[in-house]
């Protein structure tokens, strides 16, 4: 039995007036957009080139873990809030119960989203692509018997996968919403197959 509670709250309303003035197509936070990709891409580049740059495994491992840690903190606390209006964290109350909190910026009074479309694409592209690359590295290290790199690769999968999971929860809602989305999708596929039984048969 898990003691975690899920709470969805609203993100800072004070940002709405400022963000409403900018066009959606422009990158309004270039520094945040840069560092959103810089740390995670740098960790991947160092992992790929470290054996060519130095023979010290410890130096490579420390460098990669530092880059991954900086990326985790920056994406979790800064770039998600600025670029897409999302933020998540875990807090423990006085009773020792763990609460997962997922924030999403409110839609403006006109009903339009305040996030820049260009920044949103950059954010989600980096957030989804890099964990997939680390998963590929994990299989590669496992099948090539590079045991010493497994800890580093697993660290990349865990840290970047945690941010991906947290922001997906912020985007679509609580665990109940995730289950509902999966159920609805499977239900639609079942109804489509029942309605068109010959659709799946080979011609």
TrEMBL record:
UniProt xrefs under InterPro entries: TVP23-like (IPR008564)
Entry's transmembrane regions: 30-49, 55-75, 122-143, 149-168
Domain of life: Eukaryota
Predominant location: membrane
A Gene Ontology term for the protein's cellular component: Golgi membrane
Record's bilayer topology term: Multi-pass membrane protein
Subcellular location: Membrane
Keywords recorded for this protein, A-Z: Membrane, Transmembrane, Transmembrane helix
Family classification: Belongs to the TVP23 family.
Protein's name in the database: Golgi apparatus membrane protein TVP23 homolog
